[in-house]
Specification:
The structure holds two protein chains of two kinds. By secondary structure, chain A is an alpha+beta fold. Chain A contains seven helices and eight strands; from the N terminus they run H-H-H-H-H-E-H-E-E-H-E-E-E-E-E. In chain A, the strands form three sheets. In chain A, strands 4-5-8-7 form a four-stranded antiparallel sheet, with no helix packed on it. Classes of the chains: A alpha+beta, B mainly alpha.
């Protein structure tokens, strides 16, 4: 086992050294633009694949394996994705700081005759260029900072980076959302109804809930804001763990409507109306009242609830 | 093994951080460089796809945690 570990460490140590020798060799012996493009393409594909195919899934899996009882799966996943954003922005900031100080990393973008002064990476060289002569240009440079193209390549790079980052983050968040469930605790923001409809509208039925108290006037609750809904995953309510004290409402319809209020019974809403998000699942509540519901109250250690069954 | 003491949430954050840096280097550093050369655009994109496929292939063959 010790030998295996030594071999693994030796290989891991040798790999970057060998990889670093490749550009040095190529720079000394010259390289055609075509070969440069091929190597750049393969290396970027590998980097992209390692990030999207290995690191991001691993990060989410590791974060979700946490046994922190105060966090649901979405918040755990967010740790990994926020780490992704922080890594991205740290490099972005570093590059901007270095560019401001005059030593930033910039690209010549293959404008042939103009080489980048501060670039220390392998530049595209004309095929007729002698390698031994061009190496100092590659390493030390002799031109001006940010040569070849002005602001246009920088703007294109930034735009592409931002678009790619947002797209990947969106795909990551959407693709790894746990079992298409909505988790909403007292700390979570109110979920937009269109988002709820898109995520849970297929086969899960109604998610929206509007609660109010007719006796003492409508209760001012964020769920009553038109067009915005609060929804909580039913599995959280049905688990043995008590809900956080200020988690007020739990709603789901699949096929039983459950409205749980972890508040004293005096605060139990005397009027409930459900906003139908998926008309194919339940009858449309045109009156905005208890249409289609047969409710019974129930009590438990965590609070008082109101359970309604669809007719 | 050596990372056993790190809480999973922190480890997830660190892994996400690493992936963010990888994505930054790829998207901001290399891909604009590739697309700037008008003569080899298709070749560059093909090589990028090839690199991605190479990783997927090697990962499926030799993947281990």
């Amino acid at each position: 086992m010790a030998i295996g570990l030594v071999v693994s460490v030796a290989l891991a140590s040798a790999a970057p050294l060998l990889a670093a020798l490749l550009p040095l060799y190529l720079a000394k012996n010259g390289i055609s633009p075509r070969m440069t493009q091929i190597l750049l393409g393969i290396s970027s594909g590998l980097l992209f694949a390692v990030a999207t195919g290995e690191l991001i899934p691993e990060a989410i899996e590791v974060a979700n394996s946490s046994t922190n009882p105060h966090m649901d799966a979405e918040h755990k996943t967010r740790f990994a994705t926020v780490g992704l954003a922080v890594g991205f922005f740290v490099l972005l900031t570093l590059e901007q700081i270095m560019a401001t100080l005059g030593g930033g990393h910039s690209h010549g973008h293959s404008h042939g005759h103009s080489h980048d002064a501060s670039s220390i990476e392998l530049s595209v060289m004309p095929s007729s260029t002698n390698g031994s002569e061009s190496l100092p240009n590659v390493i030390a440079g002799g031109g001006s900072v940010g040569s070849g193209g002005g602001a246009s390549p920088v703007a294109a790079a930034s735009s592409f980076g931002i678009v790619a980052f947002i797209g990947l983050a969106g795909i990551t968040l959407r693709g790894t959302h746990p079992s298409k469930a909505i988790h909403c605790s007292h700390k979570s923001p109110i979920i937009d109804s269109a988002l709820v409809r898109r995520w849970l509208g297929h086969g899960r039925g109604v998610l929206g809930i509007k609660l109010g108290r007719s006796a003492s006037g409508p209760r001012h609750h964020p769920a009553q804001v038109p067009g915005r809904l609060r929804a909580v995953d039913h599995s959280r309510a049905s688990s043995s763990r008590p809900a956080p004290p200020d988690t007020e409402y739990v709603a789901t319809l699949s096929p039983i409507v459950t409205v749980a209020a972890a508040t004293p019974s005096s605060h139990l809403p005397s009027e409930c109306s459900f906003i139908v998000l998926d008309p194919g699942c339940v009858r449309h509540d045109s009156a905005g009242s208890l249409l289609g519901l047969d409710g019974t109250r129930w009590h438990s250690a965590s609070g008082t609830g109101f359970r309604a069954r669809l007719r | 093994m050596a990372l056993g003491g790190i809480p999973p949430l922190a480890l997830g954050f660190v892994l996400g951080f690493g992936s963010g840096t990888f994505l930054y280097i790829t998207c901001v550093g290399i891909v604009p460089e590739l697309t700037a050369d008008k003569n080899h655009r298709l070749l560059s994109l093909a090589c990028l796809a090839l690199g991605y496929a190479m990783f997927l292939l090697s990962d499926s063959l030799f993947h281990a945690h």
